[in-house]
Give the backbone structure.
Amino acid sequence: MIVVEEGASPLVLCLPHTGTDVPAVIGKRLNATGRLQTGLSWRLEDVLQLSSDLDATVIRSTISRYVIDLDRDLETPLSACEDPKTALCPVTTLDGKRIYLDGEEPGATEAEQRVLLFARPFEKALQQQVSRLSRMHRKVILIDCQSMRSHIKGVTDKGLPVISVGSAEGTACDPDLLNLVVGSFKSQQGYTVGVDELVKGGHLTRTYGRPERGLHALSLLIAQRAYLRHESPPFEPDKSRVQRLGNLLEDTFSRAIDWARMENSQSYLSQPSAAQEQEATVSPPTEGEAANDTHGPAGERPGQPPTMLQVAE
């Protein structure tokens, strides 16, 4: 359900929307539009099969965002499910098409159960990885990696840049890191780049972006034309595009790691104190203002997954 590849560098790559699994009890209630799952970050995990030299930590869930959106505030009320920009358990696609058969949408009890079964374990695993790396490094970088179809009516009418970077309008990371990441993409021919425009930074970025505590977060949204042959089922990757994008991401992430390590060595020349060690184990705070993100227009756990609620409300 949750896949974690632990690394020792100060970089965490979080993939909240690459999962495709839908429990059978939910899948049978989806309509034809819902079964297509066009709103996922299709094949992005394949692009991020990066060199072991990065030694990055990668965390992702196998559960579809149509079951629960892991880049949302877990306290989001069920009443927000009609708006794909805020929905925790969405009932529509990003462009507002219904994904459930009539009368089969999840109720409040089922939504709470999905949070307990899928979202809380993911949240805990991510917090554990950030805390682990914070004990090893004075500066840790979290990049929330997502992808989206290039053209979605009513969402990307002005065109989706190949790369969109969100930093919560500069509050979630050091400006030097933001400039480094954005500059690496802008230098590429044919790559358009947007910064804090359509993507300003989702819940994960706003929650973990605490530069004053050494936690730097960015949202990275990739237009699927950058690596897919067709942005429709079966979402077939284009080998040459995947290779080009993969090489670019690896270079960008390598530069980010070098930045963090340089900052670590320059800012902290002594061993951490006991108080600092204790602070590093504290989970990053969650805040209510992180509930509304703009991504919408934007190892394995042991044992078997729990059984989902059998009857919809």
